[in-house]
Amino acid sequence: MSSLETVVEPGSDQSKSPLAKRFRGFLPVIVDVETGGFNAHTDALLEVAAVTLRMDEQGLLHRHQTFDYHIEPFEGANIEQSALDFTGIDLEHPDRPAEPEMMALPELFRSVRKAVKEHGCTRAVMVAHNAHFDLGFINAAANRCDIKRNPFHPFSCFDTATLSGLAFGHTVLAKTCQLAGLEFSNSKAHSAAYDAEKTADLFCIIVNRWQALGGWPPAAD
User: How many CB atoms sit inside 10 A of residue 191's CB?
Assistant: First the structure.
């Protein structure tokens, strides 16, 4: 080996992607859940979606892949009728392709871990609107399924409701999307995939605008 050659150790700062460097080794993954209530330990997880991001050559974030699942309520799960009325979920609908948590979560986690590895990150950090709600349901489901390799940080998260309050002076997802110039369909809302994608677009707009204001250098710097 020439004395001029440099060995880059895996996990070193030089081996990280620009996206990993932007969030100190974390990969932001946007998540939305639809549930049978507000208690993560007793109420059913009914839908979950996760959206990964990519970063372009200018250091700007963009929505990338979406992974979404309809979930069968776990045995003994509580489901409030008011929650079903709010989300519009019909548990008996013949076209609802639901699968058990034990099948859906490992598959979702594998996809997230793959994205973490591809970007040279250390682990995923959940981005969600009122994020601790979604994180609580994901962690509770992972515990029920005895999943040891949860790719998400156990308690740190990025909350777009808080970021929206800072950037747009509003915290409701639909209203904030409108203020950010994003189309938002109330008829499509409360689908985990739709809400996760809108939350991802909103997160990208806020982070990219912060860069444009000089709050973070472009990836090439």
Answer: 20
Q: In the structure encoding, which two tokens stand for residue 30, read together?
A: 């946007």
Closest to 30 measured CA to CA, from 11, 54, 59: 54
Q: How confident is the model at residue 16 (pLDDT cuts 50, 70, 90)?
A: confident
How far is CA 52 from each of CA 79, 85, 218, rounded to the nearest angstrom? 29, 29, 20
Q: Is 28 exposed, middle or buried (0-12, 13-18, 19+ CB in 10 A)?
A: buried
CA distances from 38 to 43, 109, 134 (A): 7, 23, 10
Interacting residues of 149 by C-beta distance below 8 A, sequence separation 6+: 109, 113
Is 190 in the active site? Answer: yes
Is the predicted pLDDT of residue 23 greater than 90, yes or no? Answer: yes
Amino acid at site 76: G
Out of 132, 153, 170, 190, the active site residue is 190
8 A C-beta contact, residue 152 and residue 126: yes
Task: Give the per-residue pLDDT at 5.
Answer: 39
**pLDDT of 83-112, one tens digit each?**
999 999 999 999 999 999 999 999 999 999
**Phi and psi at residue 172, in whole multiples of 5°?**
-75, 130
Long-range contacts of 215-221 (CB under 8 A, 24+ apart): 216/22, 216/59, 217/59, 218/58, 218/59, 219/18, 219/19, 219/21, 219/22, 219/55, 219/57, 219/58, 219/59, 220/57, 220/58, 220/59, 221/59
Query: Is the model's pLDDT at 48 over the cut of 70?
Result: yes
